[in-house]
Amino acid sequence: MTETVGTGARAAAGKKGKAAGGLSVQRVFTTEGQHPYDQVTWEQRDVVMTNWRDGSVNFEQRGVEFPDFWSVNATNIVTSKYFRGAVGSPQRERSLKQLIDRVVHTYVKAARDHGYFATPQDLEIFEHELTWMLLHQVFSFNSPVWFNVGTPSKQQVSACFILAVDDTMESILNWYREEGLIFKGGSGAGLNLSRIRSSKELLTSGGTASGPVSFMRGADASAGTIKSGGATRRAAKMVVLDVDHPDIEEFIQTKAREEEKIKVLRDAGFDMDLSGADISSVQYQNANNSVRVSDEFMQAVENGTDFGLRARLTGEVIDRTDAKKLFRTMAQAAWECADPGIQYDGTINDWHTCPESGRITASNPCSEYMHLDNSSCNLASLNLLKFVTREGTFDAPLFARAVEFVITAMDVSICFADFPTEPIADTTRKFRQLGIGYANLGALLMALGHAYDSDGGRALAAAITSLMTGVSYRRSAEMAQVVGAYEGYARNAEAHQRVMRKHAAANELVRTYHSNDAAVRALATEEWQKGIEIGAKHGWRNAQASVLAPTGTIGFMMDCDTTGIEPDFSLVKFKKLVGGGSMQIVNQTVPRALEALGYPGEQVEAIVEYVAQHGHVVDAPGLRPEHYEVFDCAVGERSIAPMGHVRMMAAVQPFLSGAISKTVNMPESATVEEVEEIYFQGWKLGLKALAIYRDNCKVGQPLSTAKKTAETAAAEPEKVVEYRPVRKRLPKKRPSQTVSFTVGGAEGYLTAGSYPDDGLGEIFVKLGKQGSTLAGVMDAFSMSISVGLQHGIPLEFYVSKFSNLRFEPAGMTDDPDIRIATSVMDYLFRRLALDYLPYEKRSQLGILSADERSAEVEAAYGNPGVDLEALQSTVDASPEPHAEEPEHPHREAQTTTELMELRLGKAADAPLCMTCGTKMRPAGSCYACEGCGATSGCS
């Protein structure tokens, strides 16, 4: 058993020893005699969520209770997604306490009923530790737990499912039914169709078989119907076909051919965007397709030899194909439409703990869960950034203790869980597959000064992953000693022990570069040794322990900056402002990274200011070029190379029971040969699965049509006409007005001159004493703006550029319409917008007068009972969070996909959220909505 030793927020490694009749644990995060709820400050909040497209309110619940350090975004998502009960009814949950208690108390009851813990005191510690970690966003269970546990509905806890289909019509029709039930419940499923006879084989009646691709049409239509029937998330499904199936080439090209159809329909005038009215007429769009390749096939590709395609019933070779040519066909199709992905069968089954019970043939839709057919997996993810110490190291002992509690709770959930079908229930209860993982790896590496694509970054990621899985299996062995090994263990004991030794051996091969990752790996070594020793005597409680999932909705719940294994998305985020609009702020991981790299405070401020203006670190003042790579992100000026993503996946894969949900993004300029190389290197480096996405490869990707049109137009010969702006001078006598203002105690005057037909034509700003440098700069600035206005530059352009600029003087103003300004420029252009722009344009910019704001609030909510005075400004002038406030540095900050598209000048291939209309962003192999937390796959 394990005794976890420690008090408060830090603990030393636990002392191991046997507990009579159950696990014995000690406190890690909590304090005896004090409930976790009593250690935080609670506040009341109103949650009002609107549709991004039309502004309509799609969810509203007022007076909810959350800790003061939870962000607005996390509050909104948890309230709208996870609170149970009819909105507006007394039964509706209204506090995070109720949500956590509903779930934790169910787990505690099951742990007591099934004898997991030695004493009632141990059970109380288990309850308090889970509560504390959930309350403080240290980890989260997957969404089905929050949806279902502790409610009158079925207690489904799994997010990932694998189905099975045989070569009979009954089995195929049952596949449609089971998949529909899983989609209806908001989860996803995957399966392998390779048992179905190919279109080149005969039926017993003498006719020719339809082949698996034909049956895919029916399943795709079913998934599309359920999705469009009001589901809160897109139907998530994975279809796998073995590379030796005679219909493999048809399977590979299904979605590429449909992409050609989309082009033709688009050119004919149909709406073929991702959420267009006519896209539903295209087939095979509701599933991710993957080819399951064998080592034999990959060796044939490497050697340039033929490869045999085998009959499904007899296994005999009925056709031969050029392996290199087939591999090129896969790469070509993926280059054209991002499908199919690839799964490496040899690697997957070499790490299989239960081969005597069947092969691993498929995965869930996001590709991280891989185990037996008709099985499921429940997930939970830890927030890695919560384990960074003040000294800038990763607290491995604390992480290990947290993993103990989380993996124990995950196993307990199987004791009371319900499942969508009886075969899935039977397999899951016999093998007890778990999927512990983590989020915020990209933010963690940057905060500690590691580049994502670096040996040091990969070493730390590998060591953390090894420690997580090693502790999980050690705890699993301890649980087996108390409540028994999984039912299928006896038959698979030799294979399970072999895989444990493989994990431990891979841990020894991790090359460390820093005392930090060396310490983590050293503890992981101890955990693997102890786990194997205990497991050899008692077996293991779980056939599988760990995966790396997308962590979409639960990542938002934990206020994570990055999801799963992903790097940071960008160096800037966009903060929602009171009353509308947004303001760009620098990701707070950037100053933490600069401090970790040894930069003094003044240089940190200068670099952060540069990043705020440019969105990247290239040529930032004082930043050494060798440190640029630390700030490389998924998108932007310095985006991580595709092989950088693959190398990170390869570093952590040997320490995962399952696989990794991740798509490797490639630039639009990538070639088919480069896609081939990525897929080939994935096999060489020991990955279990891999998928790529080449930017702008889909016709449905927004802006691609406009770009194509522009290219076509440019190719047509036509007369080039050069247009130049013409200055429209103001008359000698023109109307003007002068406004006196005060911003943060600095006084000034703004004089604005207009054309007689009412249009701003010039400004003069008086700020500072005559003859001073500031007065001269303001005179020059005023002349520049005036000349621009007279040459036709719209005022709204200037307003969008200069509002929200942040520098001193800043603060309170004497203007009743603009109570707070982040700078003089921010005030001046908001004042000009109020005086000279129509309401419609100002509303789009989020600039309204005090009366207009009051009228909007009253029209929407009647007597709102809120501080209307505070709503008179669209600017949040609260001070920037400091480095010494790491608990909640990202409150209200989001990186919305639309805003990132505007910054980068290109579109992302992502669907619109079916709930709130916001464009989703990639999260692993799936998509997640930052507006409301909806996901397209597992979470």
From TrEMBL:
Q: Where is the Ribonucleotide reductase large subunit C-terminal domain?
A: 158-693
Q: Give the gene symbol.
A: nrdA
Q: Which family does it belong to?
A: Belongs to the ribonucleoside diphosphate reductase class-2 family.
What cofactors are annotated for this protein?
adenosylcob(III)alamin
The name under which this protein is listed is Vitamin B12-dependent ribonucleotide reductase
Q: What does this protein do?
A: Catalyzes the reduction of ribonucleotides to deoxyribonucleotides. May function to provide a pool of deoxyribonucleotide precursors for DNA repair during oxygen limitation and/or for immediate growth after restoration of oxygen.
Q: Which residues form the Ribonucleotide reductase class II vitamin B12-dependent N-terminal domain?
A: 47-137
List the NCBIfam families hit by this protein, alphabetically: NrdJ_Z, PRK06556.1
Q: What is its EC number?
A: 1.17.4.1
For this protein, the record's Gene3D superfamilies field holds: 3.20.70.20
Biased composition range(s): Basic and acidic residues: 879-893
InterPro entries assigned: RdRp_reductase_class-2 (IPR050862), RNR_2_N (IPR013678), RNR_lg_C (IPR000788), RNR_NrdJ/NrdZ (IPR013344), TSCPD_dom (IPR024434)
Catalysed reaction(s) here are: a 2'-deoxyribonucleoside 5'-diphosphate + [thioredoxin]-disulfide + H2O = a ribonucleoside 5'-diphosphate + [thioredoxin]-dithiol
| Entry keywords, A to Z | Cobalamin, Cobalt, Disulfide bond, DNA synthesis, Nucleotide-binding, Oxidoreductase
This protein's superkingdom?
A: Bacteria
Q: What stretch or stretches form a coiled coil here? A: none
Q: Does the keyword Nucleotide-binding apply?
A: yes
**Which EC class heads this enzyme's classification?**
oxidoreductase
Q: What segment(s) does the record annotate as region Disordered?
A: 874-894
Domain (TSCPD): give its ranges. 731-835
